[in-house]
Amino acid sequence: MAGEEASGVAEEEEEEPPAALMEGNIVGLVDAPILLLLCFHKALRVEFTELRRMAVEAAERGGFDDGLVIDIRQRFEFLRLFYKYHSAAEDEVIFMALDKLVKNVVNAYSLEHASIDDLFDSVFHCLDVLINDRHQISSTPFQELVFRIGAIQTTIFQHMLKEEEQVFPLLMQQFSSEKQAAYIWQFMCSIPVTLLEDFLPWIISILSSREQIEFIHCIENVAPKEKLLQELVHSWIGGKKQKSDSGALGVQFRKGLGNYKDIHKMYTSEVNFAENQQLAEVFALQTGGKNPVDGIHLWHNAITKDLQVILLELYQMRSFNSFSDLASLVVQLNFMADTLIFYSNALNKIFYPVWNELPKDFTLPEYAQFLDERKIEGLQNLLSYKAHHSIPLKNYVEKLCGELELFLSWIDEHLTLLHKQVFPFIGMNCSHSMQQWLLYTSLKMMPLGLAKCMITWFAAHLSEEESKSILSMNLEDSVANKPLAAILCEWVRTSYSGKISTEKFKKDLQKFFNSRCSFLSEQIKEEAKLSRLQLDMQHYNRSNSLLLENNSAITSDMHTSASASESTRNYDTSYSSGMNLHVLLPQTLNIPSQISCRSSASNSAPTISCLKSTPMDHILVIHKALMKDLDYLVLASSKLSDNVAFLTDFHHRLRCVKLMYQIHSASEDDIAFPALEAKVDFKNISQSYTIDHKLEVEHFIKVSSIFDEISRFLVSLPNDGIGTPGHREPSYKQLCVKLHDMCISMHKVLSDHIHHEEIELLPLFREHFSIQEQEKIIGCMLGRIKAESLQEIIPWLMSSLETEDQQSMMSLWRKVTENTKFDEWLGEWWEEGKVLNMAKVAEKSSSLPWLTIDELDIVSKYLVKGRLAEKHASHCKISIENSQNKIGLSGNLVVDNKDEILNEHQHKEKPLKCADITCEVGNNRDDEKTDFSGLADEKGKVLPIYEKFGHEKDLRMSQEELDAAIRCVTRDPDLNLQKKSYIIQCLLTSRWIAAQKRLQSETEPTEEKVPGQHPSYQDPQKQTYGCRHYKRNCKLVSSCCDTLYTCRKCHDEVADHSMDRKRTTKMMCMRCLIIQTIGPTCSTPSCNKLSMASYYCKICKLFDDERQIFHCPYCNLCRLGKGLGIDFFHCMVCNACMHPSLTVHTCRAKCFEDFCPICHEFIFTSSAPIKSLRCGHLMHSACFRAYTCSHYICPICSKSLGDMKMYFEMLDACLADEKIQEEHAGQTQAILCNDCEKRGSASFHWFYHKCPHCGSYNTRLL
After folding, report:
1. Residue 109, H or E segment
2. How far is CA 514 from the centre of its chain?
3. pLDDT score recorded for residue 673
C-alpha cells in the first residue's frame, strides 16, 4: 500500500460477490454448475488487480521499461480475448436460455458487454503512446494508463456484481443442475480448443486449493461421460502449469506462428520428438509418397460442391416461389460460413507463417495472402440478425443468391490457388510429421463442437479410399495431446461408418444455428398463409410443418428446466455459432437483437429536440445536465493539484450533481420504472438500472471521502501554502491524483448507465405511454422533491442548459403543475428574473401581484365610474322626457326630433363606457396607474383617498351608487373572475378600509411605542417564548395593523380580518425587543445571532421550534411533516400533499381547494386531518365523526358515505312488519336514487322508499 499512496492512485478494492454465491455456501459447483462462471469472474478480478498494481508501480518509479510495457500489453490482449468469449457465452448461450423463461432481464447486460470493448481500446492506446514516447522520461503516460485501467476495472467489476446479484440467482432458480451443466458444456465446446487449453489452467492457477478441487470436479461432471471426452477434459485441465503469466497465453490464436524459432519451439513442445531436434529435420524436402497436406484438396472440393448445390436450390426456390426449405439452406450456409471463418484464421495464423519462412523464388499475389473477411461479411449480414422481418422472402432469396454467387466465384479462385501453389510447396518442403502437426494445429483453431460438425459433414463426402487415406495420418502417434487426436480420428471413423445419420446431422445443425435463422421459420409460416402462388400447397404445408416441428422441439428443449431427458444427462458435444461471431466478426451482429427491435435498430440516444413532443424526454434534460457536470468534475480534478482555486467550485458542483443524481435515481426507482414494469411486456426490464443506482451511490461516497480528506489536509497546512516543506504524507498532489482517478471511473460508469438507459428504456416510454400518462409520471416524480432541493436543482439546471432547453423544460413543468401553486412559489424565491422571462413561453403566471394595490385606489376608481354612469343614465332620461314626444295608440313611445336630441346630447356629453374609464389592473405594477384628477387639490397634488373624503362617512354611498359601481366591475372585459370578486369585496368594505387608513395615518410610530412591543410566553414559569400556537423567539409586525403579534393566529383571534403572512416584513426579537427585518436570527449584536426558531420559512414567514414542518412548493404553504419524498408526496391533479399509502387514489382536479361542508373552513389551508368520502368530496375527520352520528349521506351530493348494506337490510326487516293503511295500499311513488342516480317507483311510505335497481333507501321523491 505504500507504493499505492506514493503514486497517488487508490487501489480499487476487490468487490466480493453476494453472500449467496460466495465460497463456503451450501450450494456448490457440482449442484449448481452455472456458478462455474463465478470462477471466471474471480480470475478477471485478480488479473485486473494485478495489472493495475503493475501500472501503479511503474508510475511510481518513472522512466520506461520496454519489457514491462510489452508484458502488460500481451496480458491485456489475452484478457480481452478471454472477456470477449466470456461475454459471448453469456449473450449467446446463458442469456438466450434465460430470456426464454424470464423476459427483459438480460438486455441491459448485453448492452454493457458491447460497450466494454471501447475501454480496452483506450488501454491499448495508452500503451501505444508509451511505446512511441519511450525516450521521454516521465510518469505521466503511465499515470494515464493507471486511470484507464481503473475505469475499465470499475466498469467490469460493477457489471459482474450486478450479474451475481440478479442473473445468477435466476439461473439457479430456473434451470436444474443438469440443464446448467449442458449450457456450460455448450460454452466450452464453442471456444477454440487452443484457447480452452490456455483458459482452464490459467483459471485454476488463480483459485485456492479448495476451489481448484471443486472446479476440476465440476468440469469433469459437466463433460459427457464418454471415455475419450473425459480424457480430453483431463488433458485440458492438467496440460499447462502456469501461475499468472497470462501474457504468453492465447498467442497462437491471437498472433499465430512467427519465425523459424517460434515455429520450432511450438512444434517440438507438441510433437513426440526430442526438444533438441534439429530444425533441418523439421523442414526437410520430401521426395516421394503422399503428403498429409495433399488431403486438404478433398476438403476444398467438398466446400465448393456444397456451396454450388445450395446456390442451385436457391435458384429453384426463386423460380417456383416456394420457400419451405429456406430455413434449412440458411442453416447450412451458416455452418459453411463459420467453417470458412476458422479455416481463414488457420491459414493466416498457421500455414502462411510457415509459407513465409520457406525459401522460394516467387511470391503469391496480394489477395492470396489471407482469406478476405470482407467477402464473408456481406454473406454473414444476410445470414445473421440483420436479416429483417420486413424483407419479403422473395427479395431475401434474391439478395442471398447474389451474395452467394459473388462469394462462390471468389472462394473458388482462392481455393484453386491454394491447391495449386501453397499446399504443394509446403508438402515438398516440410517433413511428414511437420505437415501432420500443421493439420492438427489448424484443427485446434476450431471449437470442439464445430470441429465435430465439420468432420461429420466432411466424412459424408469421402469415398472409402479417401477415408482410409485420412485415417492413415496417425495423428494419435505423432502429437503429444493424444486424447484430442484420438477423438478427432474417432469422429472420422464414426461419421464414415454411417453411425451418424444425415437426419441427425441436420438436426444438430438446426439446433446449433437455430438462434441465427429462427426469424425465417416465423416468416415462412406467415407467408405460407398469404401466398396463393404455391404449386403444391399440401406438400408445402407438410414440409413446413415438419420444419417448424423440429424448431419447436428444439425450442421446447431449451425452455424446459427439468425433464426426463435431463435426468439421464443425454446431451452430446454442442456448439454456439453466435459466440465466435461476437469475437471474429462482431460487425455482422446487431447486438442485442431484442433491443434493436424496440429502438428501431438504432443504438443512438434520443436528442433533446424530442422534448417538445414527449414529456418523459425531459429526463434527457436531467441527463444532459448530469453529464455536463460529470465532465467538469473530471476536468477540475485534473487541475486541482496546480490550482487550489478550483476547490470551492468543485465542491459546489460535486454537491449539486450528487443531490440531483440521488433525487433523479430515487424518482426513477419509485415512479418511472414501476410504471414501465406495470406493462406486462416490460416486467423486470429496469431491475439492472435499479441495481446500478444503488452501486453508483458508492462512487459519490468515495469521491466525497477523498475530497474531505483534501479539505482536511489543506486546513492543516501552515499559512505559507501547500509548498511548505515537511508537510505530512499523503501530499496534496497525490490526493488530487487519487481524486482524479475516481472521477474518471465514476464518469465512465455513470455515462454508460445514462447512455444505455436512453437506448433501452426511454424509447419504451415514448412508444407505450400516452402524453397524459407521461405527464402524470413526471408529476409524480416532481411531487416527491422537497422545496429546498428544488431551490438548488432549478438554478443548477438552468446554468447547464441552453435557452431553448430551459424554456422547454419549464414549459413542461408548468404544464404538469398547472393545478398547483408552483408558479406562485417559483416567483417568490427566485429573484434573478429568469422565471418571468420563461413564464411568457408557458401559460401566464398564476401569481397575483395586483393584490398589493391600495384597496381605496380601486374603490375610488370604480366609485367614480359608477357615479358618472349613474349621472349619465339620469341625464339621458331627463333629456328624453323633456323632448317633444307622444304615445301612439299602440302604446309605443314616439319621439319627435329624436336624432336632433341625441346629437345635441352627444355634443354636450359623450356617453361613457366602462372600457373607456377602466384602468387595467394587470400583472405589471407599472400599468397600475389610475386617473384621479378629480381628487386633486388646488396645486394639482393628488391627495390620499381618506384625506380627500375625510371621515369614513364620506365614503357612504346609496344602494344605487353601489349597484352602479358593481355593474361597472362585472361589465369590465379586462378583469377575470378572481379580480372582479376582489374588487367587489373592496367596494363592500370601503368604509372599514378608509377607517383603518385614517388610523394608520394618525399614528406616529417614531414617538409612540408599537402596540405589543413586549415578550410573550408559551410557558411563563419556564420563561419559554412563544404563544399557545407556536414556540418561537420573535413576534411579527402585521402589515395590516402595524401591531405586534406572536403569530398570525393570535392576530386573527382578536382582529376582524385575517393577517396576510406573506406581506410581513418586520419582526421583533423577544430578547432585545428590537424591531428588525424578518429573518432566521436576530440581527442585534447583543443577541449574538439568536435563532428565532429551529424552523423558519422565508416565504410563509413561519417560525416554529418544536414540530417538524416542511414547505411544499406546489401548495406554496408550510405543512406538518418530514417532507416530500419522506412521509408525504404531492398529487399534481388533486393539488394536495398526501401520505405515501395514498399513492393509488382517485384524482379530482383541485379537490382540496374547497370548504368543509360542515364547519366551512377552507380545506386547502387547514391543518386538521381530512377525510375523503367515497363520492370524492372532503371534510374534516372530526366533522365526519360528528356528522355521521346522525347522517349517512354526503351533505353535498347526497350519496351514501359508506357501505350501507346492513343498514338497508335492517330497514327491510322493519318495513316488512309495518302495515300500510288501506287507503294507501298498492300506491306507488316516483323516486330518484341518490346512489345509482336512476329513476324508479317505490311502494307508498311516509319516509322510506327503496330503490328498485340497487336496493338503496337513499332516495328522494319526485
Report:
1. helix 107-132
2. 32
3. 92
